[in-house]
């Protein structure tokens, strides 16, 4: 049966991106609030931030603080994490933070959890002080966190206050099959990071759907994939705008991470064949073009993956061009436009 994108909800992943020329991270936060307000008006379902550390192009490291700022500046869109890197934190701390957010903004907060540190090893050590057993304890930490959000009669001696009884929706995020299996076992929604780690998308989704066990949280599997989308009036303009993101990822390949640069017309002169291949592989699930191009390619993606929802990351240097890209993308999907 053919898929209609108008049946698929669409959401936004934001890193509070720092661009060349910013005076401070405050500039990135102002843009994120403006983009979130615009996404809300366009009918996007969620607006998530990802926890990363020690990256000059990313300002969303204090993720829960930023979520509160964006929730305060919007009124209906769900705001959450995509995700909180749980090995960096005690589950009780996250339960208290998100219990606070849910208490302030009822029915609008999502908690997506990842099991990677979201940074390099030295920074991970600075965050956690030791690296022993942190990733391996992820399933137990997730179970502990879920308990903190549960009913008062399900609590132990230690309680998350606020947190108890808030039932904050928890998602498991992954770039491999591990979290897909855990999400299936616990009956939780699952989101795959195909926007930067495309290799195991299909194995992870298959494992999740095959092994899903109904739970108090979900009676059937619910999967989301995150992809990169840059929409413009023409394919040529979109390709030009995409060169900013390509330069950013090239910097990652070279271990030279800098703020998002302006677009350029000569990417072929800026990378070697090997570097081009590496960038292309990382950005395999990037959809760049006009509405006609995106309609065809995204329909095929959803038909092949059977995802229930799509989340989009849009790395564009120019503020107005990014707003325009969000508008064009929203027009393809199921949205609930907010009247102002």
From TrEMBL:
GO terms for molecular function: oxidoreductase activity, acting on paired donors, with incorporation or reduction of molecular oxygen. InterPro entries: Bact_Lucif_Oxidored, CmoO-like, Luciferase-like_dom, Luciferase-like_sf. Residues 19-262 form the Luciferase-like domain. Signal peptide: none annotated. One of its GO terms (cellular component) is cytosol. NCBIfam families: oxido_grp_1. To bacterial alkanal monooxygenase alpha and beta chains. This is Luciferase-like monooxygenase.
